[in-house]
């Protein structure tokens, strides 16, 4: 079977600040309620993150944008079709905080859209 992974080195998770605070206390991120319902943790690439925020977190404040190194996740990270057939990163298992590169606030702008930091 061919490898269909777009192979970015960094993937992103958008989550409520309260969930991220719990992950830091636990030492691992086990996912949001939607992740538990779907059986995997949803991530986005840098190119997909803005649309993810607009579709699934519209008007939501107090969010965190979490940058994660993809390589340490190994085979638990799978690339699967989602919106319009685009491949999205899905993590089957807990996210070890050792794979987290940085965590930044994802505030709302005056127009209600999220203000993304530099994702490089």
From TrEMBL:
InterPro entries: DUF952 (IPR009297)
SUPFAM superfamilies listed in its UniProt record: ADP-ribosylation
Pfam families in alphabetical order: DUF952
Coiled-coil ranges per UniProt: none
Protein name: DUF952 domain-containing protein
Organism per entry: Xanthobacter autotrophicus (strain ATCC BAA-1158 / Py2)
Lineage of the organism: Bacteria, Pseudomonadati, Pseudomonadota, Alphaproteobacteria, Hyphomicrobiales
């Amino acid at each position: 079977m061919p490898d269909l992974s777009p192979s970015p080195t960094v993937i992103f998770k958008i989550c409520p600040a309260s969930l991220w605070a719990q992950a830091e206390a636990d030492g691992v991120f086990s996912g949001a309620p939607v992740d538990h319902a779907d059986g995997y943790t949803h991530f986005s690439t840098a190119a997909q993150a803005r649309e993810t925020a607009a579709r699934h977190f519209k008007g939501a404040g107090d969010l965190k944008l979490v940058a994660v190194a993809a390589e340490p996740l190994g085979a638990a990270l799978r690339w699967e079709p989602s919106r319009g057939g685009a491949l999205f990163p899905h993590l089957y298992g807990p996210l070890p905080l050792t794979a987290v590169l940085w965590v930044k606030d994802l505030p709302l702008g005056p127009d209600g859209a999220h203000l993304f930091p530099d994702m490089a």
